[in-house]
Specification:
single chain; 236 residues; globular; alpha+beta; 4-stranded mixed beta sheet
């Protein structure tokens, strides 16, 4: 039996969501505790994560209230590190494949997602990145997907799928609402381009992972859309 695990998160954070996805897919018991990242409690910074970032996992130690964390628990930070930790903690979950080649493919996919999806997408959202770089990044990811595969690597849901799903969902919000500091209309244009045959494999994959029960359980679409429209509002 695993020790207690507390996930400190923010419900609108894609990095929090990908950890929660892995926990649910592994059928792992955990306690989720929301942190206001714009007004972090002092105990979170002093006792859990001195950088003040979410997600953070507290693992082991006595069972205590999340806002009274024990120094005996291990504090694990950075979402991709946490994903690998969970895959090791639950080796029969399939979060990481058994064979070394497939495991290396999952880790390569994590790296590609960070560099080719996350970085250009949020730069574009913030008005400091280009439309073209978003498309180039999607092409990179599409090139890693096997034809007609349900998942990013192999025949089972892995941390590769958990890592990219939240960002694909936020890409969809951008293309459907045009929310962002980029020039007006570019989000809609991006969405129209992604509907074309050139990106059919990526779109089919995106449709599948966004329909999973674990994803629907952890994604506040209205909340994220509202946040994008307010936080990334264009200057008038």
């Amino acid at each position: 039996m695993s020790e207690q695990l507390t996930l400190y998160l923010h419900p609108l954070s894609p990095y929090s969501q990908k950890v929660e996805l892995a926990l649910i897919e592994a059928n792992a018991p955990y306690t989720g505790y929301k942190i206001d990242v714009f007004n972090k409690p002092e105990w979170f910074v002093s006792k859990v994560n001195p950088v003040g970032k979410v997600p953070t996992v507290a693992y082991g130690g006595p069972s205590v209230k999340p806002d009274e964390p024990s120094p005996a628990s291990s504090k694990i930070t950075e979402s991709n590190v946490i994903l690998e930790f969970l895959a090791d903690l639950y080796p029969n979950s399939g979060l990481l494949p058994k064979d070394p080649v497939s495991r290396s493919k999952v880790r390569s996919f994590l790296d590609a997602n960070s560099k080719s999806i996350e970085e250009p997408l949020y730069a574009f959202l913030g008005g400091v990145g280009s439309y073209e770089n978003v498309l180039k990044g999607i092409e990179v990811i599409q090139g890693l997907l096997e034809e007609d595969a349900d998942f990013a690597v192999g025949v089972h849901y892995t941390i590769a799928d958990a890592s990219i799903s939240p960002h694909i969902a936020r890409l969809r919000i951008i293309t459907e609402t045009d929310a962002g500091r980029f020039p007006a209309g570019m989000g809609i244009k991006l969405g129209e381009e992604l509907k074309g045959p050139k990106f059919a494999k990526f779109t089919k994959y995106a449709d599948r992972v966004l329909q999973r029960a674990s994803f629907k359980q952890t994604f506040d679409q209205e909340g994220v859309a509202t946040f994008f429209k307010t936080f990334y509002a264009r200057a008038q």
